[in-house]
Description:
The structure is a homodimer.
Chain A: H1 6-24, E1 29-30, H2 32-39, H3 43-52, E2 63-64, H4 65-76, E3 82-87, H5 91-100, E4 107-114, E5 122-124, E6 127-131, H6 135-141, E7 146-149, H7 153-165, E8 170-173, E9 186-189, H8 192-205
Parallel strand pairs in A: 3-4, 3-7, 4-6, 7-8, 8-9
Antiparallel strand pairs in A: 1-2, 5-6
Helix pairs in contact in A: 1-4, 2-3
Amino acid sequence: MKKLPDKTVERLSQYRRTLINILAENKHHIFSHELAALLHITPVQVRRDIMLIGYSGTLRQGYDIKELIEIIGKIIDSKEGQRVAVVGIGNLGRSIIGYFSGKRTKLSIVAAFDINPDKVDRVFAGVWCYNYSRLAEILRKENITIGVITVPASEAAAVADAMVMAGVKGILNFTPKPLNVPSSVYLEEYDIITSLEKIAYFVKKM
Amino acid sequence: MKKLPDKTVERLSQYRRTLINILAENKHHIFSHELAALLHITPVQVRRDIMLIGYSGTLRQGYDIKELIEIIGKIIDSKEGQRVAVVGIGNLGRSIIGYFSGKRTKLSIVAAFDINPDKVDRVFAGVWCYNYSRLAEILRKENITIGVITVPASEAAAVADAMVMAGVKGILNFTPKPLNVPSSVYLEEYDIITSLEKIAYFVKKM
């Protein structure tokens, strides 16, 4: 299958999460307009995305929720799952590790890193925190493909470089410092200031 | 001025943040292709966004950084600034408050809320944490227009409803629970699982 657009993958992930919640409520079918309403998008968008992954519902019942969850899983998960490291165990790093703890997903956080001796060689929500000086060694040994950066902005670029050198293929950057990575590495960046400024703009315009 | 598209506002916020960093390095002009490279987007995108806000650079020098920062500010900030509350003072709530602490922006976090007696009536990075039972009273008294939700997913909908009832006009939801708000309220949602699943998909495809 061809590589899907960024935004489609994002929505597929959201569809799956929503569908898992609905399945837990013992509902087995859903119409595109119901799924769309839950995610504040148009039914056309939902139908287009789901056609793109080669699935279709029935006119009378809509999509089979269980089937759709499985098909999305086949597309976005990898069979063996992927192993994630979090670098920077401040409040944000800890909240991310805590959030994943006990969740069954194909992504597992298997290592944390910090330079603070009070944090190193301790366990945070089931994840071991290594000394940052061991980053390259552990990333390789643990076969980690995805790195999450939650260090101060001034350190972000150095951490990203070290991750890339150690074979990491995807980076999620939570610092406000935009990073440069080789084109063979997938970079996703999130800054809360942007989200809040966007909200502030639309609040002002309302 | 007409309401700008969501994604344009998002990029304007990113342009400004990047430009502020560059100005601090004593650079005074920048070309669209330089700004584009820093943000991993196309120069055409940058030029289109900046034309949309009625600004243009010169062929020889590009954009005047200081002017552009000011113009973006006029568009996305409101004169008096906007007041923000964070509900849920776990690791994520604390990291958000800490992140804003000392930053000069037109957004100020002026109140925090929790139900945990160990957190209530304490100060976190300069922000007072109130008992959640006082939410409506404080939101109104403090003239808070934006609410950030960092509570457990099961509580998110109730918190959002209470915020809306108390006059909040914009909500940033960090729980994995998609929310429903009236169309007069601007809602932005972020879930790290989606970011990581997107990265995982592209890593798999590489």
